[in-house]
Amino acid sequence: MSAAGDPLVAAAVSAASEAGIEVTDPVVLHERHGLIVQLCPAPVVARVERTASIVRSNLDGANTVAFAAFLTESGAPVMRFLGGPFVSENGILVTLWALLENEGALDPVAAGASLHDLHDRATGYTGPLRSFDPRPDALALCDALVGSSFADPVATIRRAVERLELPEGLGVQPIHGDAHLGNTIQTTHGPIWLDLEDVCRGPREWDLACLLHRGFVTGERDPAAETALESYGLYDREAVDELAAAVMVWIAPWALYADSLDGTLNDWTRRRLDWLERRFR
Predict the structure, then answer these.
(1) Are 248 and 275 in contact (CB under 8 A)?
(2) CA 141 from chain center: how many Å?
(3) Where are the beta strands (DSSP E) in the chain?
(4) Cβ neighbours of residue 97 under 8 Å, at least 6 residues apart?
(5) I need a labelling partner for 120 at 20 to 30 A (CA). Which of 2, 8, 43, 174 fits?
(6) At 122, phi and psi to the nearest 5?
(7) Going from the N-terminus, what domains does the chain have, and what CATH number goes with each?
């Protein structure tokens, strides 16, 4: 939908102008934690921060785009970074990326192999990145929800944070941070990984636990995700399973905060909260 009057869209258009990109028809492609705006007629999309500033600084944003730029330059299978971060007068952070065209159904075998390729190329990055540890973000989001109508879900998340133990002895490196198959797109060059806002330094198994997250929530095997995992290569499956709780502690508060903007809990948020309630009762 076209939404040129929206202040977040206005921030995207302003960032494009600063980058020398003419925009005649900004079109919102997606909105939840942030906006994705196609900057027509240019083959460029803007990713506009909506909730990340609740827990992360502009320095984190700068570190994120530095890593994204490194991945682009290294030939990693990621969406191509074009510029940013741009910060609007009211503090909205915007980044610019090349528009990608979906070329059909995702190939999960190729997706698993491309994630391994991304990880291998990422090892060369030496700049600062936040830790994968989900607890600081989770607590900050809980604090932001104080006084909301979601007191019981917030209590569930706080209890999970207090009781969560991260597996020890895992190697860490720069990783995608949110590597589920919904963050990939099939292109003529194979699967490309999107949504690099959550890049961090952590074990590769964190990304693999993100890959399997939907199956952890439902308690049912996710065939596409399992196929991608099988094609990934060597990994520690025990560590992946141990990190399931940590990934849930990370995703549940983000989902809850996004739901709070609409005033209702969606079904997937309820399922994640129920999972945490059972795991950390």
Answers:
(1) yes
(2) 16
(3) 25-31, 34-40, 44-49, 81-87, 93-98, 173-175, 184-187, 190-193, 200-202
(4) 44, 45, 46, 47, 79, 80, 81, 82
(5) 43
(6) -70, -20
(7) 7-98 (3.30.200), 108-279 (3.90.1200.10)
Average confidence (pLDDT) over 17-27: 95
Alpha carbon distance 67, 61 (integer Å): 10
d(CA 46, CA 95): 6
Phi, psi of 226 (to 5 degrees): -65, -40
- Alpha-carbon torsion 208, 210, 216, 221, what sign? negative
Polymer length of the chain:
281
Contacts of 24 (CB under 8 A, 6+ apart): 40, 41
What stretches of 35-107 show up as alpha helix (H) in DSSP?
Answer: 58-74
Q: Is 77 exposed, middle or buried (0-12, 13-18, 19+ CB in 10 A)?
A: buried
Burial code (b: 16+ CB inside 10 Å, e: under 16) for 245-279 equals: bbbbbbbbbbbbbbbbeeeebeeebebbbebbbee
For 24-64, write each residue's pLDDT tens digit: 999 999 887 788 999 999 999 999 987 777 777 767 788 88
Whose tokens are 């020890």? That residue is 168
